[in-house]
């Protein structure tokens, strides 16, 4: 029987890892992550089932509602306001939301994006983004 070199052993281990890992990756890519497919956002553009909100959070009035068409950017179809000033929001491909204020902290809903913006602003006024 020939001697097994370190190079051959590592190659065999890598091949085994790829063979075992491929079905797991394919399952994750197919979307079999335990969800039944009925997520909060519903339809194709994801705004039909989002509930409007109007509340006071940490002394700031936050509002959000679906809009008809238009919109400025990636959040087209849903508008969020902090004390009457529009907070630009964007829906990511994975369904999470970010805002111009908390761009690197994705949250599950526009309401959570508004709350994160209020937290980040720490009492400062939201300046309109034109």
TrEMBL record:
Annotated signal peptide: 1-28
Keyword Signal carried by entry: yes
Top-level taxon: Bacteria
One Pfam match: MelC1
Name of the featured protein: Tyrosinase cofactor
Region of interest: Disordered: 27-51
Keywords assigned by UniProt, alphabetized: Copper, Signal
Amino-acid biosynthesis is among the record's keywords: no
Biased composition (Basic and acidic residues): 30-48
Family: Belongs to the melC1 family.
């Amino acid at each position: 029987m020939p001697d097994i070199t370190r190079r051959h052993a590592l190659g065999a281990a890598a091949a085994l890892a790829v063979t075992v890992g491929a079905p797991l990756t394919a399952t994750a890519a197919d979307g079999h992550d335990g969800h039944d497919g009925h997520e909060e956002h519903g339809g194709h553009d994801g705004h039909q089932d989002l509930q409007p909100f109007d509340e006071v959070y940490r002394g700031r009035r936050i509002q959000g509602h679906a809009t008809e068409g238009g919109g400025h950017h990636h959040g087209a179809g849903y508008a969020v306001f902090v004390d009457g000033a529009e907070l630009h929001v964007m829906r990511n491909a994975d369904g999470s939301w970010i805002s111009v204020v908390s761009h690197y902290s994705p949250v599950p809903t526009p309401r959570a994006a508004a709350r994160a913006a209020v937290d980040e602003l720490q009492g400062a006024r939201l300046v309109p983004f034109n």
